[in-house]
Design brief:
The chain has 134 residues and is mostly helical. It has two domains: 1-42; 45-134, Cytochrome c-like domain (Cytochrome Bc1 Complex, Chain D, domain 2). Helices cover 66% and strands 0% of the residues. The protein contains seven helices and no strands. It has helices at residues 3-41, 47-57, 59-62, 71-76, 84-90, 94-103, 118-129. α2 (47-57) packs across α7. The structure holds heme C. Heme C binds at residues 57-58, 60-62, 72, 76-79, 90, 92, 96-97, 100-101, 105, 107-110, 112, 124, 128.
Amino acid sequence: MNRTTSALTKAKLAAAILLVALACGGYAVASARASRAVRAATAGVGASDAQALYSRHCASCHGEDGDAKTEKGELYGATDFTSKRWWDKERPTDAQLRRAITAGRRGGMPAFGKKLSADEIAALAKYVRGFKGK
Ligand code: HEC
C-alpha cells in the first residue's frame, strides 16, 4: 500500500466513524424525545418514578425512609416526614408541599423548580405525603 492509498483509507475510515457517531447521536436524541412523549402520554410521573426521583434528589437529607436520619438531614434540620406530630401541626396542603419543593425553604432546603418538571414535583409531593404515619 503506498502513502496516498493509506491516506485515502484513513479518510474513508474517519468518514465511516463520523457517520456511525452521527447515527448514534440521532438515535439518542430520537429515543429521548420518544420517552418524553411516552411519559407525557401516560399522564405524568408514575409511583416508581417518584421513588427514583426521591432517592436521587431528596433522600440525602430526608432519608430513604423519610425520617431525615441522615448526616445531612441532621446537619440542616430537614423535616421528618414520618412524624405524625409534624403533619398534625403543619397540615400542609399539596400546593404548599409543591411550593416548598419548587422554591425551597430557608435553612437548607434547595429549590427544585428549575431541575424538575411540574409533574415530577407534584409526584414528589404525593410521595412525601406517603411517609405520614410510617
Ligand atoms: C440539602 C438537604 C435537603 C434536600 C436535598 C432536600 N431537602 Fe427538603 N428540606 C430540607 C430542610 C432543611 C427542610 C426544613 C426547612 C424548614 O425548616 O423550613 C426541608 C423541608 C422540606 C419540606 C417541608 C416544607 C415545610 O412545609 O415545612 C418538604 C415538603 C421537602 N423538604 C421536600 C423535599 C423534596 C421532595 C426533596 C427532593 C426533591 C427535598 N426536600 C430535598 C432539606 C433538604
